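Q: what does this look like with LLG2WHMG bound?
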Amino acid sequence: MVTAKVWVLKKHFEGFPQTSDFEMKQEALANLKDGELLLESVFLSVDPYMRPYSKRDMKEGDVMIGTQVARIVESKNPAFAVGAFVVANRGWRTHFISDGKDLNLLPESWPESLPRSLALGTIGMPGLTAYFGLFEVCKMKPGETVLVNAAAGAVGSVVGQLAKIGGCKVVGCAGSDSKVAYLKKIGFDEAFNYKTVTSLDETLRKASPDGYDCFFDNVGGEFASIAINHMKKYGRIAVCGAISQYNDTVPQKGPYIQFPMIFNELSMKGFIVTSWYNRREEGVKALLKWVLEGKLKYHEQVTERFENMPAAFIGMLKGENLGKAIIKV
Ligand SMILES: NC(=O)C1=CN([C@@H]2O[C@H](COP(=O)(O)OP(=O)(O)OC[C@H]3O[C@@H](n4cnc5c(N)ncnc54)[C@H](OP(=O)(O)O)[C@@H]3O)[C@@H](O)[C@H]2O)C=CC1
Ligand SMILES: CCCCCCCCC/C=C/C=O
């Protein structure tokens, strides 16, 4: 019999998550029935959505939500061979049983040269968020100017590079000088540290005096309130995330956005990547191709050991990750 380790939400987060809000437990897994598979997580993902979604969807004692790349270790399902790798959405667990219906097999053509963890990052949910958010929500066109915040993270780093592939000028910001240096290295035209600039307003104006056609907003809050005043006429804003607000205990009260929306006839659209998953294959194929061509670079912040998942999650929310935050079991 296999015993899985799982992380549960012991206590709902109040403000910034603490390691004491989590508890590690053991779960005895039953023997496999016909049609079932036993899987072991190889890589797990920590993502910002876990913070707001835990409040919305979870109760104390639930296993933390999340996705993993897992290897099939035993199979009583002829459609799944032992040794194959899948992406699953089974939460923070080392092992689990599945009937196969909730699994996405990694393409058999997955190149040996690429870490399979990319299926949780640049060639997975965050990459797809960038792909559909930029091309479909922002409706980016060649020659335009794109602004993206949290630009050195899993989604933002792909947004900037896809905008360059699509023939745009890209301005990005991040929370440290080393992240800013990384953005320049991967091709951003302008990059700045939002924590150290004296005036965000001035910095945005200097980076693109004519303003921005597209704003891919991962951060919300004060940054978005200032950036909206720098949009060009008919500019488009993709509201992807609001990480600056996820840990607020008292909702922020922002400036109101109607005037710039009206005067510049802006479009602003929130989106959830999974609404585009009917085109998931198209996105994965395009992202994989760009990675293999060397046009889309990736970086992963790998934390070793399942036991360190809460610390990796908290670290990611604090900005300790460059690129995608991954846990290697
Ligand atoms: N709508 C959708 O379907 C999806 C939305 N998202 C959203 O996209 C955003 C980015 O996610 P993802 O790329 O996975 O995460 P990242 O890899 O970008 O990690 C989060 C980053 O957010 C930055 N950050 C944290 N707090 C703040 C703050 N107060 N102000 C500004 N930046 C902050 C930190 O970078 P720094 O050092 O630069 O501060 C940190 O590294 C999140 O808001 C997430 O919720 C993600 C996936 C799907
Ligand atoms: C089948 C994979 C499920 C992964 C769920 C991801 C949902 C992300 C939505 C993010 C919103 C804000 O961060």
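The chain has nine helices and 15 strands. Residues 3-120+299-328 form a domain with the Quinone Oxidoreductase; Chain A, domain 1 fold (CATH 3.90.180.10).
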